[in-house]
UniProtKB/TrEMBL annotation:
Name of the featured protein: threonine synthase
Membrane spanning residue stretches: none
Subunit composition and interactions: Homodimer.
Family that this chain belongs to: Belongs to the threonine synthase family.
PROSITE patterns: DEHYDRATASE_SER_THR
UniProt entry keywords in alphabetical sequence: Allosteric enzyme, Amino-acid biosynthesis, Chloroplast, Lyase, Plastid, Pyridoxal phosphate, S-adenosyl-L-methionine, Threonine biosynthesis, Transit peptide
Gene3D superfamilies the UniProt entry points to: 3.40.50.1100
GO cellular component labels: chloroplast
Organism: Carnegiea gigantea
Domain Tryptophan synthase beta chain-like PALP: 164-471
MF terms in GO: pyridoxal phosphate binding; threonine synthase activity
Amino acid sequence: MASSSLLRPASPSSLFQNPNTPKPKPKTLVSFPTIAASSLSSSSATNSAPAAAATSNHRAAHENIREEARRHVKSHNFSAKYVPFNAPPDSTESYSLDEIVYRSRSGGLLDVQHDMDALRQFDGNYWKTLFDSRVGKTTWPYGSGVWSKKEWVLPEIGSDDIVSAFEGNSNLFWAERFGKQFLGMNDLWVKHCGISHTGSFKDLGMTVLVSQVNRLRKMKRPVVGVGCASTGDTSAALSAYCASAGIPSIVFLPADKISMAQLVQPIANGAFVLSIDTDFDGCMQLIREVTAELPIYLANSLNSLRLEGQKTAAIEILQQFDWEVPDWVIVPGGNLGNIYAFYKGFKMCHELGLVDKIPRLVCAQAANANPLYLYYKNGWKDFKAVKANTTFASAIQIGDPVSVDRAVFALKNSNGIVEEATEEELMDAMAQADSTGMFICPHTGVALTALFKLRNSGVIGPNDRTVVVSTAHGLKFTQSKIDYHSKAIPDMACKFANPPVQVKADFGAVMDVLKGLLFAGVWGFVRSLDGRGLDPESLNVDQNQQCAMKGGEKHSYMSSGNTFHSAVAVIARQFEEYELIPFHCHNLNLILLGHHITKARDEEETTANGMHETGTWVLRRREKN
Ligand SMILES: *Cc1c(COP(=O)(O)O)cnc(C)c1O
């Protein structure tokens, strides 16, 4: 039976393969000849470079992109290791990335430290050219926005060990209308990191972590699985990357605190999902205890490997601006690893000569989970964890952020700011952004609220180039949008709600609704229904004029033949302020007629044109030149 075969591990491949051609190793990718061709085109920029992905040959027909990459292994002397985060200069404590270690000897955070002197053997232009040459290709593993910066991420991992979905390379969206309409801004950008494999920017870090775990397992290190506590997006990313590599994943989720879309992702990807009746902070505590006892690798952002991937979003922003540095970058913060990851990405570009400064960073928190905001407001004195209250920005509902020290470091060194957003503010900001064509998540609403506040106080200027980091896809958070637009959120005005209009399945009812909609701001509407009889109302031109003058309740003039001509001519003559423009006509004649009428001075001129078709005109106030 087809349905039961889906559940048997041995058989799913039969769904996709012709059973007559046994293929132990599917080579599906060889059917894309353009892959080799496009990677070839990058070789001029990279051939001379010792670290580059120079590809001098077309990929052979039997070869997949991993196999191709094996032929292009280059030796280099780049390296990275774990050191205690923000260690004093005389500290000698360090660990190989192949060790399983999450915290320093004193219990503090770790940081991945690159051999900057080795990287500095090449100048800024070299790195810019190298990174630019890899964008948008399918060369393994550089087609990924993360691994296109491999030398700066995990320089020593073999391409063969990398687990990637070619994440990153997300679009940087010019929020033209949102910026102009709501903020008076000219140069506002949204980095849509959530348009990604699992719908959040957590993919960027997870490809790095799971790749390193893959390497450890190949080195026969006893890692039986990878685990995380999550507010949703981390578990989705972890389970997808683990599934892709065939590594077991275990996720601890706070029951009823994440969206359905986020919950279903690890389930679908085959993770072992524990739904625990606590909040994120409770899950985090439990998994820390569990991973201390069992050979489960800890994938939380406490783990500094992930930040190496997350930081590439910052490098990508610079790259997308042709290595010009924006004035501001606003990031929503929960566990606070990411604000530091952005800092680190910018800082590396600065230190290695790709850019000459870094942007000012803003960390945006939900007021319901705002320990960093309170700390900042208190002049960075006496950090206190808080009990995080429920927030629509559920991925940042964290009261005791593990990376608080990293965040403080990033903000102090980037002349940064912390802002907060109430539930109403973040939901309104999200609705406003959506109304200009975006479809953002509530966390991005938090970041936009921070922008509103900093614009209103004049801290961010109208021409400042500003990037708002959008961290997850709006489709993961549809329930919050449904609640908002249904005005179903207690104590919230939902002032930008746009609920659907219930209407009977009846022509007249639908027309009434649509006329009410379409003629707000329009003064009149003329429709000729030639040969289909007259609308009695339209026969009285004076009455119509009055309606038009009032901008009134009646907007529609239905007529045909000469009566119609009289009506429009009189309207056109009486209301020079207004123009009558054809909206929809069935032949060119009528379109010409429509323009003609706008200039009409007398009836004869108008009626001279033939008029035997159906058409619709809109009477609209002339635009002043
Ligand atoms: C993880 C996450 C954040 C915050 O990142 P932190 O490093 O925890 O501060 C923001 N938005 C979304 C959607 C996330 O998944």
